[in-house]
Every structure is written in structure tokens, then in C-alpha cells.
Amino acid sequence: MIQLHHCVSARSFRPLWMLEELGLPYRLVLHDFPPRVHDETFLATNPLGTVPVLFDGEVGMTESAAICQYLAARHPEAGLDVASPNPAYGDYVNAPTNHAAH
Hints:
The protein has 102 residues and is α+β, with helices and mostly antiparallel strands. It has a single domain, classed as Glutaredoxin (3-Layer(aba) Sandwich). 29% of the residues lie in helices and 17% in strands. It is built from 4 helices and 4 strands; from the N terminus they run βαβαββαα. It has helices at 13-22, 35-38, 64-74, 89-93; strands at 2-6, 26-30, 53-56, 59-61. A 4-stranded mixed sheet has the order 2-1-3-4, with helices on one face. β3 and β4 form a beta hairpin. The longest helix has 11 residues, at 64-74. The radius of gyration is 15 Å and the shape is elongated. The mean pLDDT is 91.
């Protein structure tokens, strides 16, 4: 089962939202923010002491946007992934900008 380490009002909300959108079963581990200050044992989970941390089997990830992209790619049936040949791929991997200003 997927496990997500999360703090309220942290970037870990991104992968939490993605897990909910995908409807995947997961175990949520809540921490006080920042976990490196409030729980020294968390450093064994992530030496940086930051959230998110996601474990999916043998895969461990700590970058919130990469976790979302990983989950979308691993679960294509949900239709949330955008392939690189798609013209919208740039917007998918980066927040859209105001193109009219260019």
C-alpha cells in the first residue's frame, strides 16, 4: 500500500490531493511541521527532514510535483497524465503563464 508522510499546510498536500483524485488506497502518516524539528526519528524516513515522503513498494520519493507526475503515469486509466508529444505537456509539468505578455 502507498504510504504518504504529510504535514498540514505543506507541499505534501499536492500528492495527497493526487491520491484522492486517483481514488487509490493509501496510508497517511501525519507529522507536526516541520517534522525534522518535532520528531528526530523522522530523519530515518527522510534525512532532509522534509515532507512529502511517498513510498510505493520499493519506490521512495520526496519531491511533491514529481510524486504527482509519477502517480499519474503509474495509473494511466485515470486520464490525468499528459504525454510529452502533447502540445499541453509544457503546461502540465509547469504552471501555466500568461502567454499574452510575450
